[in-house]
Amino acid sequence: MIAFILRRLLASIGVLIAVGLIAFAMFRYVGDPVNQMVGIETSVQEREQLRHQLGLDQPTIIQAARFLINAARFDFGVSYQFKQPVADLIGARMPATLELALVASILSLAAGVPMGVFTALHRDSALARLFQALSLIGISLPTFLIGILLIYLFAVVLRWLPSFGRGDVVHIGSWWTTGLLTASGLKSLIMPSITLALFQMTLIMRLVRAEMLEVMRSEYIRFARARGLSERAIHFHHALKNTLVPVITVVGLQLGSILAFSIITETVFAWPGMGQLFLQSIQNADIPIMAAYLLLIASLFVVINLIVDLIYAAVDPRLRIQLHRAPV
Amino acid sequence: MSEIAAEPEGASRPDRTFIARLKDSDLLASFLSSKVTVAAGAVTIILFLAALLAPWIAPTDPFNPATNFLSDSLDPPSFIAGGDPRFLLGTDDQGRDMLSAILYGLRVSLAIGFCGVALGAAIGVGLGLISGYAGGWTDSIIMRIADVQLTFPAILIALLLDGVAHAMLKAQSRDESAFAVLVVSIGLSFWVQYARTVRASTMVEKNRDYVLAARLIGLTHARILISHVLPNVMGPVMVIATINLALAIITEATLSFLGVGLPPTEPSLGTLIRIGQNYLFSGEWWIVAFPSLTLAALVLAVNLLGDWLRDALNPRLK
Fold this sequence. Notes:
heterodimer, A: mainly alpha, 2 strands, 76% helix, globular, B: 318 residues, mainly alpha
């Protein structure tokens, strides 16, 4: 088990260093960082001085190493566009995105699992067919279309919910802000979180349904029936429990893509989060922010992957044995 | 002479036409047995034809400033009060006929979708063939890259590639190169699945007798891969390509919607929706509604076709 964890850890660090080098290549070779920082009237000497100050005249390997070390301390320099440290910019917007992603994940689980169980147990009922049809639409339609549809319905026609922003936020500690404690904050959260959750929800629903159908056919469920257990106990105690391992994996892995997809949701609802910042940086070729965002998302993905792998190994004894026999 | 000697056993038989083989297979029967699939097929064909014939069937040329008048701007669709009979689906802020703009937009969206999928498939199939055939460290490197890329959602990769291209190109040439940038971004975001599938089948095929025979008669590795192994690993590629077409269209629409795709001067469906979203609150719903409906219908229909194709060609489900 320890060997497995170590191997996984090493692989994760390898991935992070690779992504870090890509980020460095972006920073160093896509456009000239010096040109981005100075005005047109700056003299050649001043440029050279800045180049020296930034260490851009040193050998590439040393530059790359310094970039990685700075990145590990989350120091990505100054944004070309805002002339502020990238870490501050991202830090200020992180709470909004994390809050949105968290609420969306909870929502997708809370709705997806029961819907999946229901459609598996009552396959031919009208409601199950409706869920299936909805899931097809949810999986096919682009996120931004769903967002626009919700805005049209609830903000333009019915005028129930605000269509943009976070509403009033409360400061907690020195840098965290939350919209969960005010009425307008909660109201603003409803549509973005539904938009973001819908794709994950349909994914979870389809997965739970498929797994439930598989499990319900197995011998031990038949045995549980023979023992005279109630349907309720069979469905939720025996069957659902065994479907949860793949569900945990997918939910874990999808947490990363929720963060990535929040770029779209944040744009539709003008949500002041990291995704919006990243999109602005793409439009303005603001490489420091792009590099920082890339590394941040990569670290999140790697950590989530690692945790999911470890949980998987801890939960499923068959996998543990396999891992001992055939190292990855 | 050597090509005939090494003709693979399961490859196409030239003595039977494509139509005859289609009639014999149960593919056609399985297609016709599902009403949803037939409907999806019909919608797909109609939209493809509309896109293909856009220059001939569109009522106006939406990009010709000489025929667009600002006095016509923001006209509602012709079937509701205040509509102009010349504009079936209304006009946008610049007096462009929405129906024509949608037809041309559909054309652009589909063109990028097809080119992106083709590029992704070409890269993926090529790397998959090399990876599976060569094995060893070549295989390890390619598959490691694939593993790393697979942990990131394709849309994020496409966004990043798009951003890098933006940074490298000068502002003036951005609009002109938007098409190519989108195709490359989509192609590079979607190659992994092809590579993995093709690698797995190549590893099986390379140990078959016909490959051995081809090597015995002294064919080069490239020749063996392209004319002998490739035809035998293409089956699953077509299924992945169909499913990926819907994804590629969504990716393009999303990038254009986010404002990093096609410019308003050469709008795709995503660009049209982006423009129309600004008019949602002032009541001009048709500018956003019709492009959205077209996009939704296209993606849903292609997705349904892809699902059907996957199930129909999967021997385990028969």
